[in-house]
Amino acid sequence: MSTDQEAPESQVKSETIDEQPQGHTELVEHEPTIEELQQALAQAEQKALENWDKAVRAQAEMENIKRRTQKDLEDAHKYALTNFAKELLPVLDSLVLGLQAAAGETEEVKKFREGSELTIKQFESVFTKFKIEQIDPIGQPFNAELHQAMAMQAVEGATPNTVINVFQKGYMLNGRLLRPAMVLVAKAVEKKPTDLPTIDEQA
Fold it and tell me: Would you place residue 181 in the very low, low, confident or very high pLDDT band (cuts 50, 70, 90)?
């Protein structure tokens, strides 16, 4: 004897049939062609080349930064005395001018000259130690990068554009100009026009 909770066998079969999919679709994997593989390989190679180029550029930039930083450090070390040396130059100039102006043969003047000469030598020794070079271009060709022309003068026998007098010596620190030398430069002597020969009217 069947109860109301039991479903008829025909109904169960009907529901089972309804739950089954209407159609069966089989998934077929697409196999890439040779052309597609070649294209993918070319794209991968291009991408790798771009990444390599970026890496090389980044490495080069790092090397440039490293070199610039190293040069800045070297320059800071080499030229740390620039301002200090510039302040010392007028002191040395005063000593030289004082020595040149010391005339006479009294004991006081002699002692002053000896003391000034000794002090100047000490200055020169210190300058040599710290690679401060003197520019004294007397007789040399004028160089606008190292010399400052205060005037030009025609001098018989002097080669034009050469330094014939130095008003103030220049200085360099480790190859960098601290102060140009103030100089007098020779110019060509102007030739006077010669008298024209007399024309012989009878000729």
Answer: very high
Structural contact between residues 153 and 164, judged by C-beta atoms closer than 8 angstroms: yes
Residue-level pLDDT at 37: 84
Reply yes or no on whether the pLDDT at 201 is more than 80.
Answer: no
Distances (CA, A) of 112 to 2, 44, 92, 93, 152: 144, 85, 15, 16, 35
Q: Is the dihedral of CA 118, 120, 126, 129 positive or negative?
A: negative
SS (H, E, C) the chain: CCCCCCCCHHHHHHHHHHHCCCCCCCCCCCCCCHHHHHHHHHHHHHHHHHHHHHHHHHHHHHHHHHHHHHHHHHHHHHCCCHHHHHHHHHHHHHHHHHHHHCCCCCHHHHHHHHHHHHHHHHHHHHHHHCCEEEECCCCCECCCCCEEEEEEEECCCCCCCEEEEEEECEEEECCEEEECEEEEEEECCCCCCCCCCCCCCCC
- What pTM value is reported for the model? 0.60
pLDDT tier for residue 28 given thresholds of 50, 70 and 90: low
